[in-house]
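Dear colleagues,

I hope this message finds you well. In preparation for our joint manuscript, I am sending the Transport permease protein (Candidatus Terrybacteria bacterium RIFCSPLOWO2_01_FULL_40_23) sequence together with its predicted structure, so that both groups work from identical material. I would be grateful if you could confirm receipt.
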Amino acid sequence: MEKMSHFINSIYIIWYRELLRFWRNKMRVLTGFSFPLLWLLIFGNGISASLSLPIPGVKFVQFLFPGIIAQYLIFTGMFSAISILQDREFGFLKEILVSPISRTAIALGKILGGATTSSLQVLPILFLGPLVGVNLTVKMILLLIPAIILLAIALSSIGVAITARMKSLDAGQYIFQFLAFPLVMLSGAVFPLHNLPVWLNLLTKINPISYAVDILRKIVFENSNLPPQAIESLSPTINGHVVAIHHELLIVVLFSSVMIFFASRAFHKA
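The corresponding structure tokens are as follows:
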């Protein structure tokens, strides 16, 4: 019982430190929120004028809204793990690695810290919905929040798994940029996943983020007056069948669990 209490307390300390670091960096908070705002209001509305969707009555900027949430989570969730490289650079990581704290607890604290800060940065985006014609409801927000947290945990785990054994801060930033771009572009966050070339369609199917994006999109469009068939036309398919939301949720949960496992193992080898 005492060991479990120490384990949980260790996770809490690492998590709380990540939260403090986030709140003290005011510029990170302000500049971070401007990114989705510019994408929605400028890019989204600009493309809406020239691009039509297969769903009548839905503008591209409305389609883009849940995609922006996922896109921002990808960048903030993965890049939150940069703090590990900063800790290594300033010697703090060495101190906690030789301390009695379990390395699994360190990994989980970093993952939960990154997931919390990225989720906090994303939540204000929800209130931009009315600006692009997305009607917010209490039910929608309550469904979106756990979906956002789940995706944030998966993405933060990817970042922690990569940076746990890396030495260079610059190399970490380049690798994250290299990984983030295909994850975004192959997820359906920016463009619909229909009528794609065979090879590109295959890549979107094996990208677990595609199913997370579709969960967000189904929640956003749930309270619309659109028929279910219209919404499903934007969803990923396997063997010609639309992937149901509970199957998508299972895929994301399994992906998150696998990434947490790899992140923990990476810290044990650090």
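For the figure legend, we might mention the following. The chain has a mean pLDDT of 83. The chain has one domain: 2-180+259-268.

With kind regards,
E.M.
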